[in-house]
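Supplementary Note 3. Input sequence used for the single-chain structure prediction.
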Amino acid sequence: MTNSHVGHNCEIGDGVTIVSGAVLGGYVQVGPRAVISGNAAIHQFVRIGELAMVSGLAKIVQDVPPFFMTDREGPSSGRTASA
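The predicted structure, written as discrete structure tokens, is reproduced below.
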């Protein structure tokens, strides 16, 4: 988690993976077991759902539903496998 930033009043769920360079704005909520890849930027007040996967270099400005994967521009139409 080097060079990462988690803004004020963020809520991070259990088992979340935050990779180096990821940046979370204030009041972001991250669900359990979500993955935030390297150099991803999450705008303030955004919610990342359970088991969601945010791709590297992503710019997230809207909520990511549970079990979804994102590309660089936001949620794509897919679901991750639940473990």
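The longest strand covers residues 5-6. Residues 13 and 25 are 16 Å apart (CA to CA).
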